[in-house]
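## retry 2 of 3
previous attempt timed out at serialization; input unchanged, resubmitting
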Amino acid sequence: MNFDGEQRAGLKNCLIRNIKRNISMKLLLGPIMGAVTRTKAKVWIFYNRGQGQQVLPQCVVFKDENCIEKISQSPFNTISSSVHEIEGIHGIAGLAEISLATDTEKSYYRIVFNASDQSENNQTYTIRRSPEVGADIDSLSFALISCHRPSFKPGKDKKRVARMWRYLEEKMREHDCRFLIQAGDQVYADKKPVNAWEKSLQAVTHEERLNHYRQTYLRSWDFLEVQQVMRTFPQYMIWDDHEIANGWGSDEKHWCDAASRKVFEAARQAYIEFQHSHNPDSLRDNRLYFAFNYGPIAFLFLDLRGHRDINRFDRKAEGGGYPLAGRQQWDDVRTWLNREDVRESKMLCVVASVPVLHLSGSFGSLRKLKNDIADQWSMEHNKKERRILLDLLYGWSGERKCPVLILGGDVHVGTLADVMEVETKTRIHQITSSPITNKTAWYVDIPLALLGEKFDFHLEENEKRRVKGRITKRVRRRNFAIVDVKFADVKPSVTVHLYRKGWGRLKVESVEYHF
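## retry succeeded, writing output
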């Protein structure tokens, strides 16, 4: 296989930089701390496996920070379908599912590549257990980001990425955050320097296409500050369009073209290798939407890309033909919402990579001009599924008198929004954080704000159930959100901190919600 200079540099530079950092002679990316429960955790690595090497690296768990009292040892089982090989470097993804200490809140682990020489990686990493499902807690803080895209320009780019992710780590530690939600566009596979989408359209084999997408992850995540956050805090990730191509599924050509479908399969496999593999288990086999509980709070992550196909839109059909999320996903979400642990939760957070409330439906006439507009829930082909989602969320919240948050990204502007069912006065709050490092869309957002700050639509076609929404705050600089939930009273209260890049320092706007 022939690789250009940009691709060849990516894999080798990961290894060289880690050697210089004294992290490992074999570790290329990671570790990434994935899903954590009361007793288990997932740890992910991408490492250089020597040719012919059969022994798997091990994740060794200890009870103490000095790594004396060993608890367990688990192999990093291979999750890559093949080896990503460039000039003698054999990159492969591995996942270890480890057991945690049961009598203390913290466990510690090391990565061992060679059983006879445990000095290969002397870094010690810390994991904190999550509370039991449904257990009462005093508080929870977590962070929300989306849209990470380094521009790969020397100097300036490195400082920008380092600054925002360093700020993120600093504030996550300050708020004692328990995890980070990455709500989509963790990489930009359709942009330079790899431009995996365009190159994959010309590729002959699935392996070539897959390696182009793998290379995107290696280049985009190979920053010390990015790696530091991913190894320190549990990561929960869901993809959006740029893990595949801009506006994937909102262009009629995407699913109609055989070459595009092949590229989608490669992008999906790379996403599973680098992101989804360390998420909690999916709600259904071979699907990418998932959920988990943190004490009394239930989290649901919708997959708004894997099933999106605008060609399925049928105005007269049930769900409009389900062109956005697919019928099966909605059936599985209904089943999940009726599970006993979810029904007894005190709060529900739904991650939708594309915010439910952002762009007015009046922009629908411009759909053919830009896939980003076609992506919006307010467009005609997505309205029925917007009704389905909000109907489910209002039903869950109204029956239990418990709050619901919608968490999103994608739109390159941070926003806070409210959407209320007029008759019942049931209110849902939406938090959107975007972008963490990509360019902002302030020049687009200013006219959008002037033309569409408020929303008024119906949950049923007979127009009996009216919904009013409004965007209450907009942040047009690079940003991330910290969400603080407190259970001091019977009902939780939420404080949202939208941190944004300022001139030489970080600025914040905070809003409190009481339910």
